[in-house]
Amino acid sequence: MRGRVVQRGRLRAGDAHHPEEQLAGGVLALATGLGHSCALLRHGSIECWGWNSTGQLGNGATMDSLAPVNVEGIDGKVTSITAGYNHTCALTRDGGAWCWGWNMQGQLGDGTSTNSSTPVHVQLPGKVKSLRASGNQTCAVARDGVGWCWGDNSYGQLGDGTLVNANTPQRVSTTSRLTSISPGGNSTCAVTARGGVECWGWNLGGSLGSGSSAQYLTAPMAVVGLGTGISEVSTGGDHACALANSGDVWCWGVNFNGQTGGATPIDVTPTQIRGLPTPTASIALGDTHSCAATKEKNVFCWGANQVGQLGNGKLDNTAVPVAVVQAGH
């Protein structure tokens, strides 16, 4: 079963259900939106399935698909994929960025607000090394360390100094060179070349951790208290977490459900997550919960758990990491 993707569960409108022989072997990565999923295959092609009302499957149609369909029209071998609510993007080996699907806020970056059911080339001034989509926005880090964002900017999450949506890439207003970028629901964070973290967007009660009380940060500000030595940042709905080179995890922001691991409703400074038994290898955030994978290949989650998103067989919120229970145990 290695390299095979199989989805099971109740079928609802727009959900995907397909035979096990689909996508057999060679799956390198997955990306999921509100109601669609995509898989990057080993030979560099993409297959998507699920909702397709805005063309987010990239097959030239707008009908939902119960089985994977090929994404057509990308020039170059794809190395990574990412998805927002109803749009999808891909990065090619030669540094090109391609997007398709919903485009009302300009999240495809092609200079229009017209949806596209086939990939459009994002006009960036340089080659891209990382590409991330979330919600109705998309961000990229160019190989020269410059950050670019486009799409929804209702809260300043593009970081260009305005609150105006953009249908072409806007340069992130920082003098720091960036290594990675993570757009979230209402804000965006990035890791700098010096190992620090800068965030911008909606700053509810100081949730971006910069020490500023402004409602919106339309340009990046450094997160106070992290210092350097950060290798990864992940942004959720209104909170963020950073992974240090040491394997420690730090979180800050809105904490109504325990998602930052702190003791206050809004943690304005980073809180170190206690209770992770081994150094962390990677982190991932949902809207109101957080997860970490350890170097021992175990997964722990904390925060909101009303629908079982922590995977521990219970429905109680917790600010303390709990182990995800393996299926059948």
Compressed to H and E, one letter per element, the order equals EEEEEEEEEEEEEEEEEEEEEEEE
Distance between the termini: 20 Å
* Cross-sheet strand order for the largest sheet: 1-2-3-4
Q: Give the rounded overall mean pLDDT.
A: 92
Could you name the CATH topology of the domain at 1-142?
Answer: Methylamine Dehydrogenase, Chain H
Strand content: 35-45%
* Rg: 19 Å
The CATH superfamily of the domain at 1-142 is known as Regulator of chromosome condensation 1/beta-lactamase-inhibitor protein II
Task: Give a quick account of the main beta sheet: strands, pairing sense, barrel closure.
Answer: 4 strands, antiparallel
Annotated CATH architecture of the domain at 1-142: 7 Propeller
What does this protein structure show overall?
The structure is a single chain. By secondary structure, the protein is an all-beta fold. It contains no helices and 24 strands. It is globular, with a radius of gyration of 19 Å. The N terminus is likely disordered.
List the SSEs and their pairings.
Blueprint (H helix, E strand, L loop, with lengths): L26 E6 L3 E6 L4 E5 L14 E6 L7 E6 L3 E6 L4 E5 L14 E6 L6 E7 L2 E6 L4 E5 L14 E6 L6 E6 L3 E6 L4 E6 L13 E7 L7 E6 L3 E6 L4 E6 L11 E7 L7 E6 L3 E6 L4 E5 L14 E6 L6
Antiparallel strand pairs: 1-2, 2-3, 3-4, 5-6, 6-7, 7-8, 9-10, 10-11, 11-12, 13-14, 14-15, 15-16, 17-18, 18-19, 19-20, 21-22, 22-23, 23-24
Question: Tags for this entry?
Answer:
329 residues; mainly beta; Methylamine Dehydrogenase, Chain H; 24 strands; 0% helix; 43% strand; globular; disordered N terminus
